[in-house]
Amino acid sequence: MNLGEKLKHFREQKNMSREELAQKMNVSRQAVYKWETNKGYPDIDNLIQLSNLFEITIDELIKGDSLFQKKITIDDQKKSKDHFSDPGFYLGILLLVIGGIFLEDGALADALTILGLLTIVFYDDFKKLFWGIIRDFKEEKYK
């Protein structure tokens, strides 16, 4: 049984509709549909939430779905290769160079150096935070 079939089975076992599951998961009904039809896969946070909701382990959810397991492996390989293609890396290096070389010692140089290091390390988190705020703002605006 693949992940989609298992999700549908456990959802129906709890007598939940896709809409109800989507509301509990804070995702769209279409996302649940895609998961159940194997047109998309939940991310790790949603897998954890699903396992808690259905009172099963993540292993029980994904075991037997070799396609999903291959996707996880491919995604991990992509993540490990993407460090140098990440614009945050280059932005951080630029800030380090400006702060460390072009500016004389002082508060601004120190601030740019620290900002550069933080940008290199946390660029993806800043990006997710920014787009999350934008998404929340749009959701509130159109309620």
From TrEMBL:
Gene3D superfamilies, alphabetized: lambda repressor-like DNA-binding domains (1.10.260.40)
Top-level taxon of origin: Bacteria
Record carries keyword Membrane: yes
Keywords: DNA-binding, Membrane, Transmembrane, Transmembrane helix
Transmembrane parts of this sequence: 87-103
Membrane among keywords: yes
Gene Ontology molecular-function annotations: DNA binding
Annotated ranges, domain HTH cro/C1-type: 7-61
Name under which the protein is recorded: Helix-turn-helix
Protein's organism: Terribacillus halophilus
